[in-house]
Structures are given as C-alpha cells and as structure tokens.
Write a structure and sequence with these properties.
It contains 18 helices and 19 strands. The chain has 493 residues and is an alpha/beta fold. The chain folds into three domains: 92 residues, no CATH class; 279 residues, 3-Layer(aba) Sandwich (Rossmann fold); 101 residues, Alpha-Beta Complex (Outer Surface Protein A, domain 3). The strands form five sheets. Strands 8-7-6-9-10-12-11-13 form an eight-stranded mixed sheet, with helices on both faces. It has a three-stranded antiparallel sheet with strand order 1-3-2. The chain binds S-adenosylmethionine (SAM).
C-alpha cells in the first residue's frame, strides 16, 4: 500500500504516540475515554494542530475541517479516503477506521506502534452497531493474550485469527518469522497495513484455522480465537463467533494445534469453555489435552449462563433492542438444553513433547502481569523435575524463591499459629498452606545444605526418622519446585 510510508511520516511528525496523546488530553479525559466518553477529551483538543486533529478524528470519532485534516495528514487525505480510512463531506473529514498509537514494552524495550482497526463502537452511549466482518481494535482480550504470550526469542510464530494483527506485531519483536491468518479479508487487509505501517514483516494468509499452514510447524502459536459459546445458528459476528457450536472451536484448536508445533513449541490460547453436565471443568478440558504434550490450564473466572448471554448481547449492541428478550431466551434455552451450567474464562498453554504433565488450576486471584514469564518458568520447572530422580533431588541444593513470604494466621497472643501460608509476591502469586515442617524446610532452603541434609536436620529437631521425612516430604518438595516456591541451585549460583 503506497500510502503507508507517508502515513507513518505524518503520524511521527504529529508526535501521535501513546504518551503524547495521554499527556495532551490529560488523565481525566484519558480515563473518560476508557469509559467510551469523549467530551473531556474534546475540550482538550481544540487547537486545530496535527496532534489534536488526529486525536479528534480517530480516537474521538469527531470530524475535523479539511484544512485541519490536511495539516495533520499532508497530501494524504484523498488517498486515505480512497483506502477507506477517512471520508469527506463538503468541508469536513471524518474517520471511517480507527488508527491509534499503541505502546508496548518487550524485553525491557519500550516501543510505539500504530494500529488501524474498525472504529470503536458505542462511543458516548451511541447504539453499538457492528457489522458481521467487524475488525476489533485492541481489546482487553488482545491485551490479555499479549501478556500471556511468552516472549522468548523463537524462530517461527503463528498468530491464528489475527484480526487487526496486534498479536503479530508483538510476535515480530521476538520471532524471526511470523505468519498471521484470518478468514476475514478486511482483517487481513488491516494486518498487512499495520505490518507495513510499523515496518514489520508478517506473512499474512487467508483461511480457516490451520488450513493456511497445513504441513507447517511453529515454535509458538498465540491465539485469541472467536470463542463465544453460542448455538451458532443466528447471524455470525466473525470476530467472536466461530460458526461451530459450543466451545468446539477451542477444543479443535487444543486438539489439533500441537500438530503445528515444533518439539518443545508452545500453543497459547485465550479461551472460553463450557462447564457442562455436572462434569468438573478440569475433567472436561483435561480430556482435550494430548498425552504427547505438557499443559498448564488456568481457569481465571466463571460466569453463570445468564450473565454470559447478557455480556455478549451487550457486546453486539442488542441490549435494549426490540428482539433482546427473544435473543436472550433463545440463547439461554440452548445453554440449558445442552447442559451448560457455567462458562469458564482462562488460559490454555500446551507444549509439545515431554511427558504429558497436565496441570489444571483455578486461579481467579490477581497475578503479576505480564504472566507469560511465569508460564515459561512452569514449563522449565516441569522439564527439570522430570529429569530429576528422587535420589538426585535428595542430593541437590534448593533455594526459596526471593519473593516467597511466610504469613502466619491465628488468634492474637496465641503461642502457635493456626495456619502457615507461603505466598509468592511475583508471577502467579501462588499461595499454599504449609505445616511447620514444610515451612521450616522452605525457610532453610538457602542453597547451602542438600535436601537430604535438611531432612536429617529437621528429623533431629522434630525427633522424626529422616527416612520417614523423606517419604512424606519428597513429593511436597516436588510440588514446591513445580509451583515455583523453590528453585534448584546452590548459594550464589
Ligand atoms: C477475538 S478476534 C482476535 C483478534 C486478535 N488476534 C486480537 O488478539 O485482538 C478472533 C479473530 O479470529 C478470526 N476468525 C474467525 N473465524 C476464524 C477461523 N475459522 N479461522 C481463523 N480465524 C478466524 C476473526 O476474524 C477474528 O479476527
């Protein structure tokens, strides 16, 4: 697209970056915009200068005069109208697509990007109207997946269901080769545009699920698929509806995705899943996981069916519409008939190879973001533990992770605590209750004495046979390593 270079120059010249925009409109207006309210920002962008005009055009969806548009986008207005980003009336120019700065920070490096997508629906309480081929901008789901995705350098990465290409832009910072796929031709066009605008190389391909990458393997697949759980009978909004009933789309990706991974490669999926037929959620999702893969699945949140249907009917602008009750009823009836009792939201992380360790946890609590490094650390711990025989573990020295704190709970003045909790301050911020021996063991893990020596010392202190301690606590030590409370390594290593 021959306008991308000049567009980039114009955005740069106007200083249209995340920080500059935030500063120009101020914190209050920035927060208001986060609530889809434009008025406070309109009051702060009256200069007619390039930065104010770009903010008004794209972020506030407010027309500007032709002269102001020409000052902000010199020599580009007609071209951008032809390309469908802008439209022009007699004397004014308005945006038909969104173009906004996006600040990222990867491997300690801050970067400014621009992302073109469809306009944000529903500003200032306007009716939410989205077309079937609507291309989402940077949503909270996009940000969640970006934070979930591991950022280790890789040879190849796949962004499946790329939308406006935001994940592909992230992947390009640490993958030598990035492929992005989608079934929406408008999304593919925007991804190409965004790749060019940001000077990034992305191989953009048209097609459903893994069809466009048949026979290919990747070191990393990151996907935020159209996972909304619906009867798949009504009209389909391609950004959220896969066309497959229920959570079949997620099941399909989890079951077949590993065929497109290199050995040791990761598939990371942001997903919704049905909790159905009285089957525990982890049993159902666990049945999708393959024995040739390790997997860490985290259920972050659950919604009951009614709340779920309301969420997505609001998302598509049907709340309050003439057929709202009928749509609500149809969807809810279908969920009931198919035995769906709730819907889980969470993260599915699958690594090809290894020994089929599947850990499915419910963790609705606050975690350190980005969480990607903690998922990677889990994979490393699983590999290390697998290689460690019990004898080797007994001979090794361990350290309590720097951020692990001990909390004691009990009545004021009581001599002994009722409970001891070990709590991480970083990563997943996991917590586990520990008995006094476990807590003392973790406390003594400073990379000096071996596990066997610590069992010996604790045996003496508590008058317990060291072999018995080993039998009881070696599995606990494995758990502590797997959950990241402990790390293998001598002091100073
Ligand atoms: C929730 S959006 C995710 C967009 C983007 N990856 C992000 O993180 O914001 C899902 C995307 O999947 C695409 N999609 C829908 N059905 C698909 C299919 N069968 N195969 C591949 N992509 C599909 C949609 O067009 C949409 O762009």
């Amino acid at each position: 697209m021959d306008f991308t270079g000049p567009l980039r120059d114009a955005l740069l010249a106007a200083d249209f970056t995340y920080d500059r925009v935030a500063k120009a409109i101020g914190q209050e207006a920035h927060r208001a915009l986060g609530r889809n309210e434009t008025l406070p920002a309109l009051r702060r962008t009256t200069s007619g200068g390039p930065l104010d005009s770009l903010v008004r055009l794209f972020l506030l969806q407010t027309p500007v005069s032709r002269e102001a548009a020409d000052r902000a986008l010199p020599g580009l207005v007609d071209q951008l109208c032809n390309a469908g980003l802008l439209e022009q009336s007699v004397s004014e120019v308005a945006a038909r697509m969104d173009c906004r700065p996006y600040a990222t920070s990867e491997a300690g490096e801050d970067r400014d990007l621009w992302v073109v997508s469809d306009l944000t629906p529903g500003l200032d309480g306007a009716p939410v109207a989205v077309g079937r081929d609507h291309v989402l901008g940077i949503s909270s789901a996009s940000t969640s997946l970006a934070q979930l995705t591991m950022r280790e350098p890789v040879g190849s990465a796949l962004d499946l269901g790329t939308g406006c290409g935001v994940q592909a832009l992230h992947l390009a910072t640490h993958a030598d080769r990035v492929v992005a796929t989608d079934v929406n031709t408008r999304a593919l066009w925007m991804t190409r545009l965004n790749a060019e605008l940001n000077g990034v190389d992305v191989d953009v391909r048209d097609g459903s699920f893994f069809e466009p990458v048949a026979g290919e393997r990747f070191d990393l697949i990151s996907t935020n698929p159209p996972f909304v759980i619906s009867p798949a009978t009504g009209e389909r909004l391609v950004y959220r509806d896969s066309g497959l009933p229920g959570d079949r789309v997620v099941e399909h990706i989890v079951r077949t995705g590993p065929d497109h991974l290199t050995d040791g490669g990761w598939l990371q999926v942001l997903a919704n899943w049905a909790i159905a037929d009285g089957t525990p959620w982890d049993e159902r999702i666990g049945s999708w996981l393959r024995e040739d893969c390790d997997a860490l699945v985290v259920q972050r949140e659950t919604l009951d069916p009614a709340a779920y249907v309301e969420l997505w009917l609001k998302d598509s602008g049907h709340h309050g519409g003439p057929d709202y009750a009928q749509r609500y009823d149809t969807w809810l009836s279908w969920l009931e008939e198919t035995g769906v009792e709730g819907i889980g939201f969470g993260w599915i992380n699958v690594r090809l190879g290894g020994g089929g360790r599947h850990e499915l946890i419910e963790w609705p609590y606050d975690v350190e973001q980005p969480i990607g490094p903690a998922i990677h650390a889990w994979g490393t711990a699983v590999t290390d533990l697998r290689a460690l025989t019990d004898d080797a573990l007994v001979a090794s020295t361990l350290r309590a992770r720097e951020d692990v704190q001990q909390e004691t709970v009990g009545r004021p003045g009581a001599e002994d605590p009722e409970a001891i909790v070990l709590r991480q301050q970083r990563g997943f911020r996991r917590a586990r209750t520990a008995d006094t021996i476990e807590a003392a063991f973790v406390g003594a893990c400073d990379g000096d004495l071996s596990v066997g020596q610590l069992f010996g010392a604790l045996g003496q202190l508590t008058d317990t046979d060291a072999d018995q301690l080993r039998t009881t606590y070696l599995p606990v030590v494995r758990e502590l390593l797997g959950e990241g409370f402990l790390e293998v390594g001598a002091a100073g290593s």
